Amino acid sequence: MSTLMQFLVYGLQLGSVYALLALGYTMVYGIVGMINFAHGDFLMIGALSTFFIAQLFSQIYAASGSYPALVVLVIILIAMVGTGFIGVGVEAIAYRPLRNRPKMSALITAVGVSMFLENFPRALPFIGPSPRSFPALFPSIKFNLSGVMISTTQIIMIALSLIFMLILYNVVNKTKIGMQMRAVSMDKNAAQLMGINVNQVISITFFIGAALAASSGIFYASIYPQVDVYMGSWLGTKSFIAAVIGGIGDIRGAMLGGFIMGITEILATSINSNLGYAIGFVILILILLFKPAGIMGKLTIDKV
Amino acid sequence: MKAIIRKILPLLGVVALYFLLMYLKSIKVMNAYHIQVLMFAGVNIMMTVSLNIVNGFTGQFCIGHAGFMSLGAYGASIVTTLIFGGYHVAENLRIPVFLLGLLVGGIVAGFVGLLIGIPTLKLKGDYLAIVTLAFGEIVRATLRLIEPIGAARGMIGIPAYTNFAWVLFFVVVTLILARNFIYSRYGRACLAIRDNEIAADSMGVNTSKYKIISFVFAAFIAGIAGGLYAHIMSFVQPDTFSFVKSSDYLVYLYAGGTGSLTGSILGALVLTVLPEALRAFGNLTNWRIVIYAVILVVIMLYRPLGICGGKELPFLKINRKSLYEKNFFGRNKDRKPEMPELSER
Known about the structure:
The complex is a heterodimer of chains A (304) and B (345). With 304 residues, chain A is mainly alpha-helical. Chain A is 72% helix and 4% strand. With 345 residues, chain B is mostly helical. Helices cover 68% and strands 1% of the residues of chain B. Chain A binds chain B through residues 29, 35, 94, 97-98, 101-105, 107-109, 111-113, 115-116, 119-120, 122-123, 233, 237, 240-241, 244, 248, 272, 274-275, 277-278, 281-282, 284-285, 288-289, 292, 302, 304, and chain B through 55, 61, 119-120, 122-123, 125-127, 129-131, 133-135, 137-138, 141-142, 144-145, 152, 198, 243-244, 247, 250-251, 254, 258, 286-287, 289-290, 292-294, 296-297, 300-301, 304, 344-345.
């Protein structure tokens, strides 16, 4: 029983990474209607930039090996905002001109952008392909709750990601910009006629998505402290699948899908590591066969 | 007479190309490495043409094509290496064993294409793309589990049966098959599905059937290409056929141009040879994939149909005028039937 609980803790921590990343996929899909294959690379940019920012700060603050909480918050915020602006830039340069073109072009462009974002830092001499060890941003004190080991890092990251999700959910459902987002996702042209600045809404969506991806990158690197330029690609694929399982385009679905993916992956990995890798894809195919729009997604009907 | 010349001339051109390259090799202008790059280019052409049949001509979206390739590579290698013992095959049996291996690889890939095609081709667009991606990854994870074929370490000691002549032969056969497929009744149905699935459905085209046919056909070609690839490398590993490889083929296809066999040839050839050529500029090595990515994005932004989207070299078309005249007893002679222009969907 305690082993199962332990796996559940690991599943939750991985699931929160997936869920945060899946939110970006699902928001972009919901609003622009494209799969942003480069989204996973925002995670990598977030983690990598945190690494470098933390290195800058370490000369001043982390002489003792740990960072004060306020500094950690500042580092995370800088990384998130920076990655957010990179997301906005990517959208403005690569995706905006293709918005009214066929879906295929946007998808291929996204593959190209993803290749660029992975290999540009790799080609830069001061970053390079070699993995780096991520600094310990959060304090790591381990507790033993009747056989279940849980560390403060895990508690902080799960709590923070739940807070982020809650904020996002409320932003989308309760605020003016959220209402604009929902309007654009329903009908872009009608939204424009109602006086909504569609470009601005899409930019903001990309900003939020990329910032969340950066935060999930920081959390991921905090529990598996290694960052390299390719970390985003397979994490991206998995959380994208999480978004589809939950029903792409639906925010609650992305969270649910993320946690389902995380927990099943950890449980399957405990049996066999290859199984852990493949289980997400198997679940995906099974769910799509029986519920073609995902758990929470709504099927759209083709009109002639 | 003219028609026969038109048919034979390109084939003669291919033979001439072969002898030219062999001559260049014999006078040491080209070395074995150059020839090997060209062999990979040939395999990539086959893969790109196969992907083009699904993505470019039928308008589906497969992003896990390397999965079919890996099935073909493993299928062929199992036949030649595990069943017939690789290098221990008698000299005069090597070619039949090799061809048998390729055939088995193709059939395995085609059969799996059918298996996943039947349930998933009911899905559309993005969802289909996701399922094909998942398929590729499941194949890879499964191959990593099977111990007799080397699991994650991969399979070694595959005899290097593939030579340049075989690659050239299979590329030509693939092109002829693909061309004939596209200009047949099946191909027209596929084009109709691409251009408007609902309209095609209401005109009586059995869309699911034709989608599956094109999927299986493409998977079969991809399987054979995989078999050739395995017998060039003499080594296969599951991780070779990851999403990275699938996206390589997407790049070749969309840079060259969808809906065009010429584009597939050009895209695969140029983008396989170019990185190798850029290798000569030592310190550019790290930058070549970056350049690659930029090229792809720029092509998509300024020429979304690719370099030769919808256009075709003459010998990759079939002139149907004569056929058409026969059917219409000479009426409407000036109405030339043509391939529907590729329009942006």
